[in-house]
Design brief:
The chain is of the alpha+beta class. The chain has one domain. It is built from five helices and six strands, in the order E-E-E-E-H-H-H-H-E-E-H. The strands form two sheets. It has a three-stranded mixed beta sheet with strand order 1-5-6. Strand 2 and strand 3 form a beta hairpin. Helix 1 packs across helix 3. The longest helix is centred in the last third of the chain and has 47 residues. It binds zinc ion. Zinc ion binds next to loops.
Amino acid sequence: MADLLGKDSYSNSKNQSYLFTGFAFCANCGGLLYHRECKHKSGSNVYWQCINRNCRDKRNINERELVTAVHEILKSHMRTVLRSSKPLTADMVTENIENDIVIKGFNDKIKQINDTKAKLSAQIDNGTVTAIEYEEMNSFYDSKIVALNAQKESILCKKKKMINCIDEISARFEKYCELPELTREIIVTFIDKVVVESKSSINIFFRYADFFAQEESGGENSGS
Ligand SMILES: [Zn+2]
């Protein structure tokens, strides 16, 4: 679960990381876009370019245009998430809903076994089973309950970690939402990858999108 929270895997390497290093991709070949600086008399322009020799339609974008587009899309995404994350609880996360069903399943099984154990005690009382049989079956049922509780515990633990993680993510959205400038730290924290088709067609894959997808689609009108 720790790897859910973003780390800059490029920042530790000896090479300098530019703003989009490792995050910008060519929509044509899927390869990375690279930082290229073109110097001319009046200054320099920075571009992000596909350098794949086999790519027949290399994508290429001016950094300023890429920054503006990514920042706008990211801010709108953050606002949506912050709006919808106010009442965010674990139950809104698909995996947690599934976990609740699994936990309920465990509880039902444990209840069934306890019912069987109660019947078993009645059977020893009326002499249907011997003391040895009772001991054997009772300890068999007990071991089953122990195993079920252990499985239940591991799911609850996972669920708790996920809730902590969501709180952490929401805190990060609040922290970065109003920042005026797009920084590498923000990109690393929230973005998986940016696929560049053209300056007007940029597709951003957000981290944690699954956590908030349900809420984000909540505002849409579906049906007749
Ligand atoms: Zn390419």
